[in-house]
Design a protein that fits this description.
286 residues, Rossmann fold, seven-stranded parallel beta sheet, two-stranded parallel sheet, 12 helices, 39% helix, globular, binds NADP nicotinamide-adenine-dinucleotide phosphate, membrane, transmembrane helix
């Protein structure tokens, strides 16, 4: 464990990426304040976080919900950096696009306002997505962070439940966050990960990991997502967030390193077959 590097707030500590980030931050000498959603019946098992090395001394929990933007203020107190990771992900489309997007924007702006008022927060990193970059109908192979998804195009084109809503809410929230930062002189950078894969410490299989295992798990409705998936390892995502916290010269949007050349799923098929055979699963066919 390294020397104390200051205090960082990670929102949505129970999630796949946030819990991995908390583990990394503790290992690399940071103190961490994380937010979880209110659990009045105290049914939630957070031992995957409280048992992390260093957690008993350096990890603190706060309750907060994006539906109540002011609820994050206590968690931010005294923090030097903020990793804004929490986000409702509802591929089943239980709520309307407007409700999901409005909550994401209001919650995020609420946190950014509190960061602006804070005397200690030096850098905020917002976890966006390539969903805010590449869904624009442009027929080109390579896109970098200068590209934006087109909300109207997504609405017309991606009609399967929940997916379009998620991409629209990520695009609109990132735009609103960058605009707020610019207008208020807040030091905000955004990270644009593709489909995040790799090991996890949270208790349930993360959505993106389950997507990548769709062929092994037989989830045929997710096959179309695989055919156009770009992937990034969760360790690389954690490194990118921590690099952005520590490197004051970084500014604006994205990290090119995460937008790797198209990693077409069929290129990985041989490896997947190998793994499936090793695991004595039924033959995988496409
Ligand atoms: N995984 C990927 O492939 C991927 C790719 C690109 C970008 N991202 C972005 O990375 C971030 C984390 O993704 P993830 O895969 O780690 O997702 P995840 O495992 O589903 O975690 C989401 C986190 O957000 C919290 N959350 C949900 N609704 C909330 C609300 N109303 N108020 C406060 N917290 C709330 C969840 O809390 P509960 O546990 O209480 O539900 C959970 O802790 C998201 O912003 C996502 O858009 C992910």
């Amino acid at each position: 464990m390294e020397e104390d590097k200051g205090t960082v707030c990670v929102t949505g500590g129970t999630g796949f990426i946030a819990s991995w980030l908390i583990m990394w931050l503790l290992e690399h000498g940071y103190s961490v304040r994380t937010t979880v959603r209110p659990d009045p019946e105290k049914k939630r098992d957070l031992s995957f976080l409280t048992n992390l090395p260093g957690a008993s001394e350096k990890l603190q929990f706060f309750t907060a919900d994006l539906s109540d933007p002011d609820s994050f203020e206590a968690a931010l107190e005294g923090c030097n950096g903020v990793l804004l990771v929490a986000m409702p992900i509802d591929y089943e489309g239980k709520e309307t696009e407007e409700a999901v997007t409005q909550r994401a924007i209001n919650g995020t702006l609420g946190i950014l306002k509190a960061c602006s008022k804070s005397k200690t927060v030096k850098r905020v990193v917002y976890t966006s997505s390539i969903g805010a970059v590449m869904f624009n109908g442009k027929k080109i192979d390579a896109m970098d962070e200068s590209f934006w998804s087109d909300v109207d195009y997504i609405r017309k084109t991606y009609t399967f439940v929940g997916f379009g809503t998620y991409m629209i809410s990520k695009t609109s929230t990132e735009r609103a966050a960058l605009q707020f930062a610019e207008e208020n002189g807040l030091d905000l950078v955004t990270v644009l990960p593709s489909l995040v894969v790799g090991p996890f410490i949270c208790p349930t299989v993360p959505g993106s990991v389950s997507t990548i295992l769709a062929m092994v798990l037989g989830n045929k409705e997710q096959y179309p997502l695989l055919l156009n998936s770009h992937m990034v390892h969760v360790d690389d995502v954690a490194r990118a967030h921590i690099f952005l916290l520590e490197y004051p010269e970084a500014e604006g949007r994205g990290l090119e390193a995460l937008l790797r050349p198209k990693n077409h799923f069929l290129d990985c098929l041989d490896k997947i077959k190998e793994v499936a055979v090793e695991a004595h699963l039924q033959e995988v066919s496409v």
